[in-house]
Amino acid sequence: MMKKILVTEDLVLYYRTSRGPVRAVDHVNLWVEDGSSLAVVGESGCGKSSMAYAILRILPRNVHSYSGKIIFDGVNLMDLTDEEMRSKIRWRKISMVFQGAMNTLNPVIKVGDQIIEPLLIHAGYKKEEALREAREAVKNVGLPEYVLDRYPHELSGGMKQRAVIAMALLMKPRLVILDEPTSALDVLTQANIMNLLKDLKERERLSYIFITHDLALASELADYVAVMYAGKIAEIGSAETIYKNPRHPYTQKLIGSVPTLRSEKVLEFIPGAPPDLVNPPEGCRFHLRCPFAKDICKRREPPLIKVDNDHVACWLYGGE
Amino acid sequence: MGTPPPTGIKQILKEALKTKTGMAAVIILGMMILMSASIPFYSPVNFVKRWNDLKSWYEYPSLAAPVWVKWFTGTNLPETIDLTSKHFRVTEEEISGHYITTYTAYFRYTYDDYPSELKALIKTDIKGKPVRLNIIFIRPDGEEINLFNGLVSSGQTTFDISLDPKLQKNIARFVYEKTGTVPEVIRPEIILFSKSPSKYGNEAASSNVLRGRYIVKFQVLSDKKISAEPRFIVYGKVYGFAGTDLYRRDLWLGILWGAPVALAFGTVAAIATALLQVIIGAAGAWFGPKWDELVQRIADFFLIIPVLPILILISVIYKVTIWSLLGWVIVFSVVGVSSKIARSITFQIREEQYIEAAKTYGASKTRMLFYYVIPRIMPFTFALVALNVPTYIFLEASLSFLGLGDPELPTWGRILGDAYSAGALYQGYWWWVILPAFMIMLVSLGFTLLSYAFDKIVNPRLREE
After folding, report:
1. DSSP for chain A?
2. Contact B276, B333 (CB under 8 A)
3. B377-396: b (≥16 Cβ within 10 Å) or e
4. C-alpha separations of B247 from B45, B243, B256, B418, B439 in Å
5. Are residues A311 and A241 in contact, defined by beta-carbon separation less than 8 angstroms?
6. CA distance A86 to chain B (A)
7. What is residue B20's predicted lDDT score, i.e. its pLDDT?
8. Is the pLDDT of residue B288 over 50?
9. CA dihedral in degrees (B426, B427, B430, B431; nearest 10)?
């Protein structure tokens, strides 16, 4: 088995609201193997992005609790100070591509000046050196050099996304968190970006955490897939099993809801709505919508149970 | 969706030029800047000192209207005739060891009105004993009036013909010889230039002005050869483009000098306060609710205190110059309206994705504030800055008007203040009031139009598609 570059253990991130804590990330255990990509899929609001922020420790003001272990390359990131996180981990080791590239670039700063920001901040580069690096970086993502002198609004969505990816790869990180990198792009541009990401992964030996709600898209890039539901991991396993042979009822329903082009298929949906993360149901969080719910599901939360090489949090696969 | 609002400063200026209001503003302000830039070409270096040194303006007429008044009234109002030593022809005679040096000059007087004042000056370099001087005034009709006959000592001697009682006596004698009466009021500048002796002393009737060739003679009687520089000034009633004030100062120079002072004071104050207000307001909102609360409450406080009375108090207690005044203005506006604008925009920007991204790649809070947040707020304050410039120009003018501004620099407000204290409007010296007031209005108009132009560009709802 390959080396795990990132492991989270019991990662918790609750937000404080007037109604009580929101359990956005609730005791999440997952791992990323070196040089592979993990797709994190789930419905909107299931805590995918929160988990990414939790890993990088970019926390909003209203954090209720933040705990657990994040082991990156043998180091528990939770033990580092904020300053160490800032200067040693973010962008140098783990970088991130944000949701909606349109908004990730500051509209009043030229793309070039923006891309070199991490170099200026972290590596103490002079502006000219940094711009030279940036020229390489944009070429690397298939952009012409002149984009460096453009303002973001002069670029197309796909170009902006590439610029943002170039920025994420500038410091040669080991792990890149891609938070819905292709949402708001048209399908062709999406495909383009996905190919670029695949290509870069091979060339730069990167690991990815690829956060998306688009299962079909995830299948393009993912070696492993983690399915999140209501702040928890429902199932984590190789892409092969998740897509071909999903075990968790939620995953099954999710796969069933993906439209296919050729085969005739009645699209499935899951009755009910995702639970309120302030007051999640007792027991398994999916039991209210689960067709196979048993008695135990209502009482106790299922642990991650190892089935073959994969893990699934469901009482159907053993436990008590 | 229309085109996004431009963000760069250059872009905004370029767009502003395209609008009509922007064009007008640029023309007005360009004129002001040209005015300011042209000063070094015709104003002496030590102009500020000269403006306050009232003695140095003696060659200018007092309270002369602008020259162009002639074109509107149709009367040919007199301009100043200044006969300097180079206009005088010198003849020398020697009679039994005495030298008589005669300086003769003539001038043509063709105006429709009497001069406002007459003055004769002589500068001699004699050592020791005073010499005898005889000043003779010969009219076109051949009448000869002996203005002065007496001793003068070395150096410069000024004969204030219009005011000096000794000289007036000589003129009164001339009137008496002609008419047999002594006028109640002796106005030499009128008597000497009147046609009809019966109307002597009567200022009216410009038709009574005697036009023609006048001769002025300075005779110096001494026992050795001397050299002297005589001068004879016939002061007019119009002068220059803007006229003169009570203290004979050329108002046009004062108005020109007021332009850079007003522009500099207004723009520096407006830009400095806007920058400070934006930075402090944004910083407050950026660094957390406690700072925000503090900044906003101070801003509220500064918004309600009346600045003008406080500045008046300060300038009564301390001696202010225009720069210390500027300092005080800035002190009382470190936070204010722009802080509130900056705050609300900061809250909006704080949630933007690129701020999140910047946090991730490790930009420090200060860097984000100055590199990401404040540049985004600046365009919104553009219009406000342009609108604030006239406010500060008015403020300075108000203080100067009250005599509490800079005591040295000629500013529009100070010229107005001088005019007010001389009762210019009641006396009919309208040019003394209208021109500086017009300049203040013009510069305000320029900046207001500029602010409208900016507003149209920066404020998306006002954008012309």
Report:
1. -PPEEEEEEEEEEEEEETTEEEEEEEEEEEEEETT-EEEEE--TTSSHHHHHHHHHT---S-EEEEEEEEEETTEEGGGS-HHHIIIIIBTTTEEEE-S-HHHHS-TTS-HHHHHTHHIIIII---HHHHHHHHHHHHHHTT--GGGGGS-GGGS-HHHHHHHHHHHHHTT--SEEEEESTTTTS-HHHHHHHHHHHHHHHHHHT-EEEEEES-HHHHHHH-SEEEEEETTEEEEEEEHHHHHHS--SHHHHHHHHTS--SSS--PPP--SS-PPPSSSPPSSSTTTTT-TT--HHHHHSPPPPEEETTEEE--GGGS--
2. yes
3. bbbbbbbbbbbbbbbbbbbb
4. 20, 11, 17, 10, 21
5. no
6. 5
7. 87
8. yes
9. -140
Mean pLDDT, range A143-152, rounded to an integer: 90
pLDDT, one tens digit per residue, over B192-242 is 888 775 555 555 556 678 888 999 999 988 887 778 889 999 999 999 888
Q: What is the pLDDT of residues A167-223, one digit of tens each?
A: 888 888 999 999 888 877 888 888 888 888 899 888 888 999 999 888 888 888 889
Q: Is the dihedral of CA B178, B184, B190, B196 positive or negative?
A: negative
Domain B77-235 CATH (choose: 2.40.128, 3.40.470, 2.60.120, 1.10.1790): 2.60.120
Domain regions of chain B by residue span = 9-51+249-458, 77-235
**Sign (positive/negative) of CA torsion B162, B164, B165, B167?**
negative
Whether the predicted pLDDT of B461 surpasses 70: no
CATH topology of domain B9-51+249-458: MetI-like fold (1.10.3720)
Residues B330-355 as b or e (16 or more Cβ within 10 Å = b) = bebbbbbbbbbbbbebbeebeebbbb
When pLDDT is cut at 50, 70 and 90, the band that residue B6 belongs to is low
Q: How do B89-95 and B98-109 pair as beta strands?
A: antiparallel
Q: What is the pLDDT of residue B1?
A: 36
Cα(A33)–Cα(B264) distance, integer angstroms = 65
Q: What is the mean pLDDT of chain B?
A: 85
Q: Which of the four pLDDT bands, split at 50, 70 and 90, describes residue A13?
A: very high
B351 touches chain A (CB under 8 A): no
Q: Does B460 touch chain A (CB under 8 A)?
A: no
**Residue B453 DSSP SS3:** helix
From chain B, pick out residues whose CB is under 8 angstroms from the CB of A95. Answer: 360-361
> A96 and B362: CB-CB below 8 Å?
no
The contacts of residue A37 (CB under 8 Å, 6+ apart) are A201, A207, A208, A209, A210, A221, A222, A223, A224
DSSP A221-240: H-SEEEEEETTEEEEEEEHH
> In which band, very low, low, confident or very high, does the pLDDT at B300 lie, cut at 50, 70 and 90?
very high
Q: Which residues of A touch B354 (CB under 8 A)?
A: 103-106, 114
Which residue in B has a C-alpha nearest to residue A153's C-alpha?
B4
Structure confidence at residue B354 (pLDDT): 85
* CB atoms closer than 10 angstroms to residue B302: 18
Best residue of B11, B354, B365 to probe chain A, by most A CBs closer than 10 Å: B354
Average pLDDT over residues B409-430: 89
The mean pLDDT value for A227-235 works out to 90
pLDDT band of A309, cuts 50, 70, 90: confident
